[in-house]
Prior knowledge:
By secondary structure, the chain is of the alpha/beta class. It has helices spanning 15-26, 54-57, 101-114, 163-168, 229-233, 238-247, 297-315, 321-352, 355-366, 375-385, 387-392; strands at residues 2-11, 31-34, 49-51, 67-70, 73-77, 83-87, 96-99, 118-120, 123-131, 134-142, 145-156, 179-188, 196-201, 210-215, 220-228, 256-266, 275-276, 279-281. The strands form 3 sheets. Strands 1, 2, 8, 9, 10, 11, 17 and 18 form an 8-stranded mixed sheet that branches. The longest helix has 32 residues, at 321-352.
Amino acid sequence: MKTLKYDVVVVGGGPAGSSVARYAARGGAKVLMLEKRQEVGSPVRCGEGVSKKILQKIELEPLESWIANEVAGAKIISPSGSEFELSEDLAGNETGYIIRRDIFDKHLAKLAAVEGADIMVKTTATSLIKEDGKIKGVLARHLGEEYRIEATVTVAADGFEARLSREAGLKTSLKLRDVDICIQYEMVGVKADPLYTEFYVGQGYAPGGYVWIFPKSERVANVGIGVNLMFSERGATPRRYLEKFIASREDLKGAKIVEINGGAVSVSMPPESVTLPGFAAVGDSARMIDPLTGGGVVNGAVAGRVLGEALGRMVQGKLSPEEALAEYEKGWRKKMEVQLARNYLAKEKLLELTDEEMNDLIEAVGSIKLEGLSTAAILKAVKEAKPSLAEKFSDFL
Ligand SMILES: Cc1cc2nc3c(=O)[nH]c(=O)nc-3n(C[C@H](O)[C@H](O)[C@H](O)COP(=O)(O)OP(=O)(O)OC[C@H]3O[C@@H](n4cnc5c(N)ncnc54)[C@H](O)[C@@H]3O)c2cc1C
């Protein structure tokens, strides 16, 4: 068995892992990032919608190579066909750019490498090294060879399955109602409005979730669905609902599927702690996905930056490993925990709405001026249009 020694070992080469590796390496840390697949970014499991705010949040240049399309906003459409529009800056973490996720993820990994991080692809972390009550690295397999990789801090950025977080002892297990099952087709030959992402909400479209159309151009779009696992377990399979949606649409008629991908997203609150001595989880493995939209790219990358910067300060001697992990825990929560909690509550409410109530809600929200789209403004409009519905949302105030 070969032994390697690093300040930081990052398991997983998605947006969260690459962001940790990039910022830790920039701070001077000796970093190794492991990716089990043969290529960072492939195959894609994503709707590929991200907010433009990602540019300044993790210092990115908007490059044509990873941006397929730029949208002006999102349309939210109810079962009765009423809709409201949100400009891209109000529309959350999934609207702004439709990206080419494979190229995007590889671009982030390259930025980490440019800062000096080492990367090993086709390398699977098989278990954690636990000694004296601390996590001290991972055992890994690369092209048939076993490795012992020792590190001051081990980072789990291994995605939704969160295998390392679980092995470490973090409370990342999920209730049925806190998981959405997704499937998506990339379709060619659609008639899409390239200026808007579209979200179709209501139990008839997608029980406990929504159908999305994310246009990559006028003729190409990602058409996907997320169904809450509670309903999926009762037989509401996402594929059946997606097929029904596609069959009902003139603008998707005759379009050809050139890719199918899918997977699960957590629509939960994050655990109370995502760190342990010598260990931190980030991104999907720390349940940082937005529970309302299912978008996790921006949050994972942003939290990755917070962690990477703290680890940089650790190797500069400004923070002990314990202090660096405490700074990370405090820092990422400050950036997104309130939003995650509010959106978790919203998701819980929407899970219970009938299609009639959803129609009322979308109509009421559609009557608000866009610049006034705050929780209070939404509630005021709902209260005026449908007082009984407003009751359901009263604990938002
Ligand atoms: C169908 C679908 C559509 C989605 N659409 C959107 C969207 O439009 N916008 C959005 O923002 N989010 C979307 N998401 C969520 C988004 O894809 C995730 O939130 C995001 O990828 C999280 O990034 P991450 O770095 O935490 O994890 P991941 O991107 O999952 O990366 C984890 C990496 O770790 C690697 N890995 C796992 N185990 C090991 C191991 N033991 N050793 C080494 N490597 C390992 C994996 O191969 C993977 O590359 C979608 C998800 C699904 C399933």
